[in-house]
# Entry
Amino acid sequence: MDSLRLAKVLGQRIRELRDAQGVTADEVAASARHFGLPWQRSTVATLETGKRGLAAEELLMLPLVLGRAGVSGVRLIDLLSNPIALTDRLSVQPKGFQQLLEGVGGQSLSLGYWTGPVTAEDVDWSSVLRRLREMSAQLPGDLQGRLVRAAEGDMRGEAEQKAARRLGYSALQVSVAAHLRWGRSLTSERDDRVASRGGKGSVSAARGHVTRELDKELIEELQPFPRGEK
# Structure
């Protein structure tokens, strides 16, 4: 699942919960004003469409606002139901937000995964090397080292970066998996498969079909990697 921005996720959940319990946007706005927030119906509308974000104070007060308006039993964690992109480089899984709210630091797997350009310093090389050691009997000579160098060079490719976001792995892990599977970069494999379909339908449709196909094959190679590590 692709990560959404926090404002978009919160907005969607507010609308879903409000509609499910028959609460109007006017009632939510009135509840917010009761707690000292200068909300109007239009404020709620822009929140629900993701066009307006929440200040830290508003976010913390959101369960109170919704509860007083008639949306019962809502906890802040209940509003965070999708992987959320906090920045261009970090997405957080829903279960990781509890740890964030508790102030848990470090690189917990449940907290998130990198989604932006990855540098050598960002990479957890141990997970990559563990995977390669598992295959050492099948990789003659210096193939391991050459594979890692090739994967590191390819991990900044468009397909590698997008697959990392979709699958929840680092771009390096995706790149290594591609080289193990096809002996070349994911971007090259994707482009060749799309080209081989020739005039069968639109290019975008062909690329979508190929992407789904490649994702399934990549998952088989990615299984031994710790999911979500940088």
